[in-house]
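Hello,

Our lab assistant flagged a job as stuck in the queue for most of the afternoon. It eventually completed. Since we weren't sure the result was trustworthy after the delay, we are filing this so someone can double-check. Below is the sequence as submitted and the structure that was eventually returned. Let us know if re-running is recommended.
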Amino acid sequence: MKLQDYFHYLFSPFHSKPLMTLASVFASVLMFFDKYIGISIALFVIYSILAIADLGTGMYKNIVVNKHEYESNLFFKKLFVMAMMIISIAMITILTNEVANLRVPHEAVTVFNGTIAYAISLIKMFLIVAFLGYEISSIKENADELKWKTLSEVTGTLLLPLSWLKIRLQHKIEGNEDSGNK
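-- returned structure --
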């Protein structure tokens, strides 16, 4: 065999199976997101599905039903929101890793660093829930305006825990304000 035959054999999967190459690159990107940015593959897939569904229902509502012209700023708004989610979660993940890996010999500082890392992780979880809630509520609004009852009910069911939390927090705040005014 010639050297050229070895190279042909080495790169033959890339020539004969472009889908395999695409899947490999996509998996590598997702693993990078998971390891270094802090966005798991499941979160990425769920958020992407919700964002595409929100974009699709919004475009259908505006272009087909309401007969408005296509507005590219709405598309860029969606891309901006997705980029903000990725950037904010990445920054929080990096900050959490830095605080957690800080090596200080004093025990009180180590406990404080763990507490800070935990608090930052909680902020990350709240941000993830907020971004998912934003997408689901936007899909629900579009489904309500399109009179798609089934989709509206499904998204409404998904929003029930967030609605309960909102009501609970409002009662807590109002209760504290009432007791402070008396």
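-- support follow-up --
The delay was a queue issue, not a problem with the job. The result is valid. DSSP finds seven helices and no strands in the chain. The two ends are 92 Å apart (CA to CA).
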